[in-house]
Amino acid sequence: MNLSDKDVLVIGAGRIGAGKAGLLVDAGARVTMITREVLSELPPGLASIELREYLDGDLRGFALIVSATGDATVNDRVVEEARREGIWLNVVDDPERSDFYFTAVHRAGDVTVSVSTEGASPALAQELRSMIAKRLPGNLANVAQQLRQERANFHACGSSTEGVDWRSRIRELLGVDELAH
Length: 181
Known about the structure:
Layout: E1 7-13, H1 15-26, E2 30-38, E3 48-51, E4 64-67, H2 72-85, E5 88-91, E6 104-108, E7 111-115, H3 122-135, H4 140-156, H5 167-174
Parallel strand pairs: 1-2, 1-4, 2-3, 4-5
Antiparallel strand pairs: 6-7
């Protein structure tokens, strides 16, 4: 999901809310937080923070909402408003009422590996992400940049890359004989 320059609201500023806000800021979103109190260190780059209770109508104008309040009554009101307004919502620790899930992410330049358990177990997703990341080649960022340039060269000559079998070139750049299937 491209969140660059999208307005996103995180309700709640505990450890989980602050963590989700940080992920969203890193993804390029303009993040506003509403919270009764700040319970955890907030990430740099927030668009704003409002120290107050959530009020009906607060969701208007936002592309995405994260409710991390730990308060079932507030979450119920947020879910109701998000449904009414047609806004994508993640209620932390309540995957059944969420429209999307956060994934455990490993980034190496332009390469992103993401693991999801669809909200069943974020800890499992994080552990799997760590296991996968340890097994990935260390030059992924450079390989992605090289392949980006090679594709651009094809396009500059008026050629399509759709029919190109990139596997042998990828193996060569990664320095491996064979890719796992």
